[in-house]
Predict the structure of Clavaminate synthase-like protein.
Amino acid sequence: MGITTEIPRTVPWNGKQAPVYPMQTVDFSQLLSQEPAEIEKLVRCCQTEGFFYIDLQGIDGRRVLDDQQETLKLMHRFFKSPLEVKNEYGLVSPHLGYEPVGSRTGVLENTKDGYEMMKVSRDEIQRDAPHIPRNIKNSGDIKVLENAIAGSNIITKTILSALSTGHGLAGAARFENMHRNHRPSTSTLAMMHYIPSDPVTDKNIGHQKHTDISSLTLLFSEQWGLQIRPPGAKEFGFVAPKVGSAIVNVGDSLRFASGHTMQSCIHRVVPLDPTEHRYSIAYFLRAEDESMFTDSAGRYITAGQWHDEKFYTFSAPEYEQQQAPSYLLLGGMKDDEEVTVSEVHEKGMDGVKKSEVEVY
């Protein structure tokens, strides 16, 4: 299954019918115009669900969709290269470099992950000699990466600004002041290739459940595979790729910065079609390394510390993850069963009681 204009309620997966969760759509052009109704919708999405579509089909967002297509072409060439070429620098830092298939825990018990990934950070792409493998280290490909990072940064910063306005923030209290372009951060573009895998027989499966470290994640994918568990929902369900849109989710850092009023939705990736190669592009907008917030354990820490602690927990073997503090992998979000899928469809996420979306 590919990108769609008609979103089904369920799809067959792993021997059963899996739900497809509905999501609100926010218009990027209206956010640029600071339309009050659209800002109100955006705030509501972030406070109740933590996920939404961002419609980029207007003239202001269309260029980003074009950049995505050019990035996909680059990815297809890059991931077809020999391992020694892709892994020229290895993983230079948590937000820069190449990770081969099987580097982390998989989505199912006793499995490893089923994707390889190349990350290029916003800070790194601006250097005179960025650490980028030689097969994409040419002026044309670097320009493609620059465009993808710059466009994604503009989209996410526009969303961030609208959220500040919607929360009535002014001056230094606005969220943008934790995300200034000239200050060091771990903001990065991640290009992911998921290999064909069958959950019944294979040992490299998908992407384990987690919440994102970032403030905002901007995700482009034309293929099915992303699953979310909205706050209070009973089971994981798919998110449909939508024509002309990207998917945005709130990450831990923005939830913390908002005083825990926003939701950082739990999600994972599974192979809907076990025979296909799946490609996705994610831009992680992250707070400045030295910015401060109170995390889900009540600690007043820097964004850099939260990034490092969560990354290393996420990358640890399964048995070590099980021993780690519960607030790290899921950012303190609740991971239990309270609301049925049918209730979510009938009431919508706005109809879910507040008590059902509380976090630890």
In short: Residues 337-360 have pLDDT under 50 and may be disordered. The radius of gyration is 19 Å. The CA atoms of residues 189 and 283 lie 4 Å apart.
